[in-house]
Each structure stands twice: as structure tokens, then as C-alpha cells.
Amino acid sequence: MLDPSRRGKLWALHYTRATTEKPYPLELTNFPANADFHPLGIELVPSDPTGVSRLLVINHRRQNTTIEVFRIQLDPHSVMLAHETTLTHPSFVAPNAIAAISPTEFFLSHDHYFTRRKVDLVSFNAYPGAGVHNVQTIARNIAFANGVAISADGSTLAIASTTRAKIQLYSKNKTGVKFVSSVRVPFSVDNIAFAGDQLLAAGHPYLPEFMALVKRKSNRAPSYVSAIAPRQAGLGDSWLTRMSAGANVTTTFMSDGSFLGTSSGAFVDMKTGTMFVVALYGSGVAKCDYGM
């Protein structure tokens, strides 16, 4: 980056299905004044036994990459983040995306060649000074490991492989993970997120146009979001078991870049039926009605 001393920001947006307020930057209370802040992946952590919710943020500092842990404080009209601790570990070399599985565990993907494009399982303590307890590599040699997500029933770990335009699916249990199958999508997939029984995947359908934008030879690049779901509906079987019987891949959002370009992620508010699509290069967020 040209000026690493210039801090990045986290933003909040209040909305209903019919209305959207103006987004605003969040104040990071108790965060060290002299520390770099360049956020990439973020993840909400399941509430701990005391009811406290936290936000994990991948922070690409100049000296090293860290995971910042913030306590979330909510009221009807504002969001506040209080910094609790900074997690560091020698394995945090090129983290890209993060997915929490408990108040003290998360999966972390690494996307650079020298990391062997791996995914780690990280155990930590959220209290200041406690740090990381354990790091275990659970998947290796993934072609540009990018977004990670966990199904609502906990049966499935999904990992996006950007250069292979597919999502790899792993069975997940208390003893580890095991590769089961993969699903191909019609674009270079970036980030992924579960929305009920569907897995949303966002990415870049035409890399030459995307690279032209990155090199400032173009002013836009297209967006694409797909929804992946088991063909087999019903209760009782896990999401991954039903996926083994076949998957439906449907288009939920497309743009040539004039409306919203370089889609890097999509997620759904299930209560309101609202989908948001965010851009990798751009200042806008698309808000859409979402039909399950």
C-alpha cells in the first residue's frame, strides 16, 4: 500500500427491508493509537456463555498480520466496538478470510503461494494477554484458498478456490475435516456465506476485465453471485449429505459493472429477506430483495 500509516475503517449501516440509512464509520475504542489498521476479512463470533458477542478482524499491519478481537456493543441506533485483544502467531502469514465455529475457535484461509494455500483451525482465548492456544492446519494445497464458511448445521466446511472457480466441501466433526466433493461456479469465486439452506458465492466472471480495472486501464468490471443448494430438500439429513445427491447452482445477482462491479461477497439477512453485495474495488454496497 502507498501509505500504510493511513488507517482503514469499519462501517455500519442501519436498515429495514424498505429503508436504508447512511453508513457511518465505527470508532474503535481502546485500540492502540500507534497501531496500523488495515482490515480485510471480518467475522461475527457466536455469543459466549455470558451473552457477549465479538468481531474478529484480519489486520494486515506493516510488520505482521494479526487478528483483532473487538467486543460488540449494540443499541437501536448505533454500533460500538471495544478492542479486547490482538492475536498473533507465526502461521498468520497471508490470511484472507475467517469463519468462527465457537466463541474461541475459527478457521483461517491463507491465499499466497508461499503459504501453500492452506486453511488453519485456530483456538484462542478472547481475554487480553491470553493469546492463541493452538493452530492446526486442516487443509493444504488449495488453489488460491479464499472465502471460508460453515453450514448452519455444522456439518460442512466450505472453502472457495478462486483460480479453479469452484467451492470445495469438507465434512466437519470434532476430530477434524475431510474433503468430500466440490461444486463448480461460472466465475472466479471470492467470498462465500451460508444463507439458510443455500451457499452464496460471489466473484469475478471475467478476469481480464477485472485485471484491467486493477491496473486502471478500465473503470469497471462485472459482478456475479450464485446460490448453491442441495437438490434434495427435507429434514433429518445434513446439508452435506443432501449435497451428495446433487446440487442446484442458480444466479442471484449479475452486473456488467455499471451498477456494482467486482463483487467480492454476498450475505443475507434471513429475517428481512435482504441480500447485500459488496465490491472489492468501489465504495458502494448493493441492497436487494432476496427470495429463498
Automatic annotation (TrEMBL):
Gene3D superfamilies to which the protein is assigned, alphabetical: TolB, C-terminal domain (2.120.10.30)
Stored InterPro entries: 6-blade_b-propeller_TolB-like (IPR011042), Arylesterase (IPR002640), Serum_paraoxonase/arylesterase (IPR051288)
Gene Ontology MF terms in the entry: arylesterase activity; metal ion binding
Protein's gene: Pon1
Tree of life domain: Eukaryota
Similarity remark: Belongs to the paraoxonase family.
Keywords: Calcium, Disulfide bond, Glycoprotein, Hydrolase, Metal-binding
Protein name stated in the entry: Uncharacterized protein
Coiled-coil regions listed: none
Taxonomic path: Eukaryota, Fungi, Dikarya, Basidiomycota, Agaricomycotina
Cofactor descriptive note: Binds 2 calcium ions per subunit.
Xref: Pfam families: Arylesterase (PF01731)
Cofactor annotation: Ca(2+)
